[in-house]
Amino acid sequence: MAETRAKIAELDPVWARITQEAEAAVAAEPLLGGMVHVSVLHHATIEGALAFRIAMKLANGEMSDQILREICDKAYASDPWLARAARADIRATFERDPACHRFLQPLLYFKGFQAIQCQRVAHWLWGQGRQDLAFFIQMRTSEVFGVDIHPAAKIGQGIMLDHAHSIVIGETAVVGNDVSILHSVTLGGTGKEDEDRHPKISDGVLIGAGAKILGNIRIGAGSRIAAGSVVLEEVPPCKTVAGVPAKIVGDAGCDQPSRDMDQKLTGCNCSG
User: Fold this and answer.
1) What's this model's pTM, rounded to 2 decimal places?
2) What are residue 219's phi and psi, to 5 degrees?
3) Do 166 and 93 form a contact (C-beta atoms < 8 A)?
4) CA 151 to CA 153: how far, in whole Å?
5) Separation between Cα atoms, residue 6 and residue 16, nearest integer Å
6) Which residues, other chains included, contact 245 with Cβ-Cβ below 8 Å and sequence gap of 6+?
7) Which of 216, 207, 18 lies closest to 100 in space, CA to CA?
8) Contact 271, 247 (CB under 8 A)
């Protein structure tokens, strides 16, 4: 057993840590033993655990957990990037969220992490031409987690949706790698135009709670969007914007504010 665990830890350190934390959680709180075992410890890989968790959360009277599990299993087998991105999301959440003390927490309890994994499966289905099934997963994700991300939206890895409630991301939106988004953020359009109409968020961006970024505009790498801002114009890299409508108020203060998570405007060379 020790040799097997050592091999797992070498091949997949994130999954090895999750299983160790799951065993400790069961020992500390036996009443959660059934849930932790069926969600984590009964699975040999993180792909299996993710597929099971998504299926159990999204299943309803219209779509059974068995069917959803089969869909997720096929997605993870077809595209290894899905699980790699999930591992990066877990690390991102652990490193950036002071309320996250274990790798186990996002997988079991954090709806932002879970919603992103659901969208990744929906996006895979979208790429397979199975749009109606992708829309079903979008609908159930919105109903269960309060997060509405179009299946066609392109989402990078190392993403943290902090609290996540009421996040909306439109069809042609693109979110780069290592982006942190707080609750009530909208990446939306500005009217009824078709085609490419949603924001493009570059790597390392921090988007504060309640911010609205509207239209086919680019938010430069390493930028900060202050809480409550309404962004209607492009933002250069490594800048902080705030206000309604948002204006540049200074530099971002670091290369990747999404990791620093500092949302205060002090120290950003504010110009007004």
Assistant:
1) 0.92
2) -105, 115
3) no
4) 6
5) 9
6) 230, 231, 232, 233
7) 18
8) no
Query: Which two structure tokens, joined as six digits, stand for 66?
Result: 């068995």
Question: Angle 208-195-111 (CA atoms, 0-180°, nearest 5)?
Answer: 35
Name the maximum alpha-carbon separation found in the chain. 62
Tell me the residue ranges of DSSP E strands in 15-127: none
Residues in the chain: 272
pLDDT in tens, the chain (272 residues): 555 555 556 689 999 999 999 999 999 999 999 999 999 999 999 999 999 999 999 999 999 999 999 999 999 999 999 999 999 999 999 999 999 999 999 999 999 999 999 999 999 999 999 999 999 999 999 999 999 999 999 999 999 999 999 999 999 999 999 999 999 999 999 888 889 999 999 999 999 999 999 999 999 999 999 999 999 999 999 999 999 999 999 998 887 899 989 887 764 444 43
Name the amino acid, one letter, at 77: A
